[in-house]
Amino acid sequence: MTSEPTEDRPRVVLGVSGGIAAYKACEVLRRLTETGHSVRVVPTEAALNFVGAATFEALSGQPVVTGVFSDVHEVPHVRLGQEADLVVVAPATADLLARAANGQAPDLLTNTLLTARCPVLMVPAMHTEMWEHPATQHNVATLRSRGVIVAEPDSGRLTGKDTGKGRLPDPAEIVDLARLLLTSSTALPWDLEGRRVVISAGGTRESLDPVRYLGNRSSGRQGYALARIAAHRGADVTLVAAHTADLITPAGVRLIKVGTAEEMRSVMLAEADGADAVVMAAAVADFKPVNRVEHKIKKTERDPEPVALARNPDILAEIVEARSAGKLSASLIVGFAAETGDATSSVLDHGRAKLARKGCDMLVVNAVGEGMAFEVEDNSGWLLGDDGTEERIAFGAKSLLASTLWDSVGRRLSDQ
Q1: Residue 286 marked in a binding site
Q2: How many Cβ atoms from other residues are within 10 Å of residue 149's Cβ?
Q3: Count of CB atoms within 10 A of residue 190's CB?
Q4: Is the sign of the CA dihedral 225, 228, 234, 239 positive or negative?
C-alpha cells in the first residue's frame, strides 16, 4: 500500500544518483518521512546498483521507478516535478550535475529536474579530483546561475584510502537544508562567495578543580547553524567552538576548538583580522575562578573556602575596540545577547542598551529561559542594527534565524 500525500504534508522528490554515497540517502529519506514529509524516491539506474528499489519503497511507502515509460498514463516525467514542493538530489554525482546543467533528460530523475518549478537542492558527492575538475566547476556555476542550490561537499574519507573534498555531507545536515528551503525557498542564495566570516559558538568552561567548572547551558547549535548556512551560501567560514553538544562539523567549515574564555579571546582576535563578518554567537562565561584548585575539592572537607571570581574578557567589546583603534580590520561585527526581562526593562530594552554599550554593527537578541534559546532546536528574537533598524525574527529552526541574519549581513556588505 502506498501512502498518499495530503495538502498539509510537503511533497519532496528525493533523487539518488549512482555513487557509493547512495546508501546515505536512506537516512535522508528516513529523517524526512519521520518529520511528516511525503517523499517520492526517484533513483537513476546506476543508483540501484548500490541500494535496491525495495529498500526505497519500504522506507517511503511510494513506488520506485527510474524510466519514463512506467505508469505512462500518470505522466510521471512531468507530474512529479510540477507537484513537488522541493526536489533534493543526494548524492549528485559529477555525471548527474553535467546532465542537469546541459538539460539532458534520459531518465525520470532528469525529466523531473527539467519540470520542477520548486526549489532544487543538489548535494554533490564524488572524488576530489572530479569535484575540482573545470568541467564540474563550470556545471556547478551554471546550475547556481539558474537558481539551483548546489550544496558544498564535505571533506573527509572517500572510497578506498582516499580523503579530501567531495564527501557527502551528513544526512542530518542535508535534511536541515531541505526543511529550511521548505520554510523559505530563498533561504540559500549563493551570495557570500568570496566573503570570509568568523563565527564563535558554544559555551566556555572555567575550571574550579580537575572535575568541576563554571559554565552555561549553551549547546552551540545556533553558532553551528550560522556556520552551516554561511558555507552553503558560498562563504569561507571559520568556526571557533567552545563546549558544544554532540554536533557534527558543518560541510565546508574550518573548525577551531577552544575551552576557556581566554582561549576563545586569543583565537577570535587573531581570526577576526581581515574578516568580512565576525559573529560572536558563543556564550562566554562572564567570570572565572581566581585560583584553580589542583586537586578535587572533597565533599568531606569542612567549611571549604569561598570561590573567588574574576571577570573574563569581553571579547565582543575588544574586537570592536581593536577595529576602532585600527589594530584589526573587520567589515561587520555582530553580537548575540541572551536576555531576560525584569521589573524595569524588557528583553528588547536590555538588547538596545547592550547594542549601544558594545558598539557592534548588529546584535541578535534572544529571550532565554526554560525551553528557550539554550539546549533546544528552535529560536526567535530580534535583529538590531546600529542604524536604528529592528527586525523581529519569528520562532523557527535555528537555521532560519541564521538565514535571516546572513540576509542582513549580505545586504550591508554589498552596500559597502
Answers
A1: yes
A2: 23
A3: 17
A4: positive
What is the tens place of the pLDDT at every residue in 79-131? 899 999 999 999 999 999 999 999 999 999 999 999 999 999 999 999 999 99
Is 8 annotated in a binding site? The answer is no
Q: Which residues are catalytic?
A: 216
Q: Measured between alpha carbons, how far is 92 from 2 in angstroms, rounded to an integer?
A: 26
pLDDT digits (tens, 9 = 90+) for 154-167: 999 888 888 899 99
196-415, superfamily in CATH?
Answer: CoaB-like (3.40.50.10300)
Please indicate whether the domains covering 11-183 and 196-415 agree at the CATH topology level: yes
pLDDT under 50 in the chain at which residues?
1-5, 372
Range 375-414 burial, b when 16+ CB lie within 10 A, else e? eeeebbbbbbbeeeeeeebeebbbbbbbbbbbbbbbebbe
Distances in Å between the Cα of 271 and the Cα atoms of 29, 251, 275, 329, 410 are 38, 19, 7, 10, 20
226 annotated ligand-binding residue: no
- One of 3.40.50.2300, 3.40.50.11930, 3.30.70.260, 3.40.50.1950 is the CATH number of 11-183, namely 3.40.50.1950
